[in-house]
Design a protein that fits this description.
Distance between the termini: 30 Å
Largest sheet: 6 strands, antiparallel
Strand order of the largest sheet: 17-16-15-18-19-20
Oligomer: single chain
Length: 361
């Protein structure tokens, strides 16, 4: 599935901001965005710019929104400009991105090219270049699902009321793939297959790849269990976290934390119940489970913000001790016509988006 950056959409509802006399709240799909009081009404067609996209500075200036954007480097440029769409709490109420009136399109049209909008990709930390040499790719060692944003207007209705779902906390770290493929182990980041040790054999222990650390004896046992039960190509997807990985460490020592969130066997994802039972049997920690039960409107909003559940937030000394967000899947794996692939969605906390630092180029 692809994540559209800017989309034409109709405003579902206009609400008065409870704490600001000059602001309304426009509800567009599952997003709310602050607008000037009485500027829009329910049913108006708008171009909606969600958080974490980039638009060129010249476009931002033409639209009159540059003063509301965060600094970043737009692709192809060499200096930071006001180009990154953000989210924030305005007098206590979440506001995601912004919208502009538009007339010449139908709802649901991708307007990214018109506004030269691209998805924001955070700059890679310096240590990512020191995580071991890349190996040749293997088509069995597939990447994880590209997760769509639950709030995207295009995805409305993907999760039907009453559908049994699991919602887990999204951890702020680096994606890990650990695999048993036809009897051979492979490990890697989200995009790259990694060699276990650097070519510098004189410092072999020091140069063991970060992405091979989750391959413990317990993890090997888990992989072999699924290989015996379901098929020879097993991939465990998880998150590596801790001090030095991202700005949230969850109190874990340097790059030492790990939580598993999904397993695929021969390209098919395992249902949560079976995954959780097997991980408990072999002692593999999983991402925190926030909810297990039927989906209902308002469920995501009730869970996406709040303190982290990875550890007791009272023990942390970090500036931000909340959740990055949540990930939601059905208890029984299935595809979605609405999402154009696997039924899975994420929602990101407005507090996390507001707290995240500007690019450090």
């Amino acid at each position: 599935m692809s994540e559209v950056c800017v989309i034409s959409a109709t405003i579902d509802e206009i609400l008065h901001h409870p704490n600001a006399d000059r602001l309304d709240l426009a509800k567009i799909g599952e997003y709310t965005t602050a607008v000037v009081r009485d500027e829009f009404k329910t049913g108006d067609l708008v171009a909606f710019f969600p958080p974490d996209i980039l638009i060129p500075e010249r476009i931002a200036l033409q639209l009159g929104v540059a003063k509301y954007l965060k600094s970043s480097i737009y692709p192809g440029e060499f200096r930071k400009t006001a180009c990154r769409v953000a989210a924030a709490r305005l007098r206590g109420v979440p506001s995601f991105g912004f919208c502009l009136r538009i007339k010449d399109v139908e709802p649901g049209v991708d307007l990214s090219e018109r506004f030269h909008a691209v998805k924001y990709e955070p700059p890679e930390p310096a240590w990512w270049n020191q995580t071991g040499d890349n190996e040749c790719e293997d088509n069995r060692f597939h990447h994880y699902t590209n997760i769509g944003n639950y709030r995207n207007p295009r995805y409305r209705g993907a999760f039907e009321t009453g559908l049994p779902v699991r919602i887990t906390e999204k951890i702020h770290g680096t994606n890990s793939r650990v695999a048993l493929l036809g009897g051979d182990y492979m490990c890697g980041s989200h995009q790259c297959n990694k060699r276990e040790y650097s070519k510098d054999v004189d410092q072999i222990e020091r140069n063991r790849s970060l992405y091979w650390r989750p391959l413990t004896e317990d993890m090997k046992a888990l992989l072999w269990y699924f290989a015996a039960e379901k098929g020879p190509n097993v991939i465990a997807f998880g998150e590596i976290y801790g001090a030095g990985v991202q700005f949230m460490s969850y109190g874990a020592p340097e790059k030492s934390g790990y939580r598993l969130f999904d397993i695929s066997v021969n390209g098919e994802y395992v249902n949560w119940g079976e995954l959780e039972s097997a991980c408990r049997r072999f002692g593999i920690p999983t991402v925190p489970l926030l909810y297990l039960g039927p989906f209902y409107p308002g469920l995501v909003d009730s869970l996406v913000d709040g303190p982290t559940t990875v550890v007791d937030p009272k023990t942390l000394k970090e500036k931000f001790t909340g959740r990055e967000g949540i990930v939601m899947t059905p208890l029984q794996e299935q595809n979605s016509r609405v999402m154009g692939g696997r039924l899975i969605a994420k929602a990101v906390s407005v507090d996390y988006l507001a707290c995240r630092k500007s690019d450090s180029h």
